[in-house]
Amino acid sequence: MAYQPPYGPPPGQYGAPPPGHSPQPPYGQQPYAPPGQQYGAPPSQQYGGPPPQQYGAPPPQQYPPPPQPPYGQQQPYGPPQGQYPPPPQPGYGQPPPGQYPPQQGYPQPPYGSPAPGGYGAPPVQYPQHGYGQPHVQPTPPSLGYGPAQHIPYDGAADAEALKKAMKGFGTNEKQLIQTLCDKDPLQVAVIQRTFQQRYGKDLIKEIKSEVSGYFEEGLVAIVRGPLLQDCALLLKALEGPGTNEKLLNDVLLGRSNADMRAIKETYQRTYRRNLEKDIKADLSMKTERHFLMVLAANRNEDSAPVIPQEIDRDVMDLYKATEGKVGTDELLVCNILTQRSNAQISAIAHTYKQKFTRDLESEFSGHMEDALLYQLRTGVDRAMRDAIMLEEAMSGLGTKDVLLVNRVIRAHWDRNHMAQVKGAYQARFRKSLASRIKGETRGDFEKLMIACIGER
Q1: Which residue in 68, 76, 213, 431 has the fewest CB atoms around it within 10 Å?
Q2: In 146-274, where does DSSP find H-type helix?
Q3: Where do Low complexity bias regions lie (predicted)?
Q4: Is there a single domain that holds both residue 412 and residue 429?
Q5: In terms of domains, do 314 and 376 share one?
Q6: Residue 169 belongs to what domain range?
Q7: What are the Cα distances from residue 366, in Å, to 317, 327, 370?
C-alpha cells in the first residue's frame, strides 16, 4: 500500500507547532489515547493533574487504552470495532504543550450547585447516574479566557506596523492582514494595549475608520480577541427582532465550564447586562430551557472518567428519548449532551452505533436539531464539526458571510486545530477549504480569510 502523506501543512508552515512544541497528530492519524494514559485519568501534562505515580493501570471499571498501530500507519477514520474513540482534543484556543503556561481556572463549584454570579441551576434536572465526581480536576480556560498573563512578546513593532498601514491617504490592507492574522489571543491583547499607549488611539476604532464590510468585521474580531468577540456576537444574536440561534450555538455550545463562566462574567462587565436574563427574554419553551442548562456551566470536566455502565445507561436513555416512544424527549437529550464531557459524549456516540447500527446524529430532527448536532459533534470530532459548519456557511443560496467570518476567526486561534479542520474538510468534501473560500469571497475579505486558515 502506497504511503499516504498526512493531512496538514509541511513542517514549519502555518499550522505546524513551533520548534520544540509537542506536535498535534494530523487529521486521521490521531491515536486513540496517548501512550501510558487511560480513560478517566487526565493527561500527564494536564494542569492540576495527579502525580505520575498514580498512572499506570486503568482505574476499576474504566477502559484501558486500545492498542496502537505501527508507527506511520494511517489510522482509519473512526474507532476500531469494539473500542471506544479517543478523548477529544483540548478546547479551541487552548495552547499545545510547551506554549504559554495554563491559566488559573475559575473556582469550580460543587457538582450540581448553581454557577457563581446568580445565574442559577438549569430549570430541568435529570438523574446524573453518578457522573461528575466533585473531586475531578477542573478544565483550565482556553487561551484568552483566563486572567491576564505576562508573555515574552513586545507588541511595539506590530503596533507601529498597524499605525503605518493606516497613516495618510489610503490603507495598506495587506499590512493589516499580515500583522494581525497570525497572532494568538495574548499577543493581540498586547498589540491593542501598546497601540493605545503609544498613539493614544483605540485600535478597533482606527480599523473601523479605515476599512469596511466583512473585511472590517474580520479584523475587528481578531483585535477584540476570542472572549470579547464571543460577547459581541451574543449581543448581536439577542438584540433586535428575532434571535440568531446559529450565533448562539456557535458561541455557547460545547464550551468548558471555565470558558462559560468567563463569557458570562465578561458579558455582564462589558454590557451591564445579565446573559441569563437576556436569554430568557429572547427565547422560549424548550430552546430557552436548553440554553439555561448550558449557561449553568455544570458540565463534567475533561478529567471526569468514562465509565462503561454509565455510558450504556445514557445510550438507552437516548434511545428511549428519540425513538423508543412516540415523539422525542428533547430536554432529556439536551440534558445528557449538555452535562457530559466530550470524552463521555464520544463514548456514548460510539456505543449507540454499536448497539443500534446507526449513528446517533441520525436520530435528531426538528427545531433543535442544529443545537443537538453541534453538541454531539463537539464530543465526537471537533475538527469535522468545524469543517461542516464552514461548509454550511458557504452552501446554499448566497454565502452567509457573518457565519463564515466568525467561524474562520474562531478556528484560527488554534493553528493545530485549524490544520485538523482543513484535513477534515478535504476528507469530507473532496476539495480544499482554501479553494472553497476563494470561490465564495472576493477582495480583501477573501485575502483575510485565506490568511487566517494559513494559506496564500
Answers
A1: 76
A2: 156-165, 173-180, 185-199, 203-210, 213-224, 226-238, 245-252, 257-271
A3: 35-48
A4: yes
A5: yes
A6: 156-211
A7: 19, 11, 9
- Please name the residues in contact with 2: beta carbons below 8 A apart, sequence gap of 6 or more: none
Measure the N-to-C terminal CA separation of the chain; round to a whole number of Å: 32
Say how many domains are in the chain: 4
Distances (CA, A) of 348 to 29, 84, 148, 310: 22, 9, 36, 9
Please tell me whether residues 357 and 398 are part of one structural domain.
no
The CA distance from 318 to 324, in Å, is 9
Q: Compute the mean pLDDT over every residue in the chain, rounded to the nearest whole number.
A: 80
For residue range 402-412, what is the model confidence (pLDDT) as tens digits? 999 999 999 99
The percent of residues above 90 in pLDDT, for the chain, comes to 64
Q: CA neighbours within 13 Å on the CB side: how many for 410?
A: 27
- Dihedral over alpha carbons 374, 185, 259, 303 (to 10 degrees): 90
User: How far is it, in rounded angstroms, from Cα 24 to Cα 417?
Assistant: 8
Residue 345 has pLDDT above 80, yes or no: yes
Give CA 316 to chain center in angstroms.
28
**Which of 456, 455, 451 has its CA nearest to residue 181?**
451
Burial of 195-226, coded b for 16+ CB within 10 Å and e otherwise, reads beeeeeeebbebbeebbeebbbbbbbbbbbbb
Report yes or no on 37 lying in a domain.
no
What whole-number distance in Å separates Cα of residue 176 and Cα of residue 169? 15
In a domain? residue 123: no
Residue 61 in domain: no
Reading the block at residue 136, the C-alpha cell is 475531578
Query: Which range has the worst mean pLDDT, 18-32, 254-268, 315-329?
Result: 18-32
- CA torsion sign for 341, 347, 352, 355 is negative
Q: What is the pLDDT of residues 25-38, one digit of tens each?
A: 555 554 333 333 33
Torsion of CA 390, 102, 451, 426, to 10 degrees: -40
Joined together, the cell numbers standing for residue 86 give 479517543
Question: Which comes out higher in pLDDT, residue 447 or 168?
Answer: 447
* C-alpha cell at position 325: 416512544
What per-residue confidence (pLDDT) applies to 43?
A: 41
Statement to judge: residues 314 and 364 lie in one domain: yes
pLDDT tens-digit map of 74-104: 343 333 344 444 444 444 444 444 344 444 3
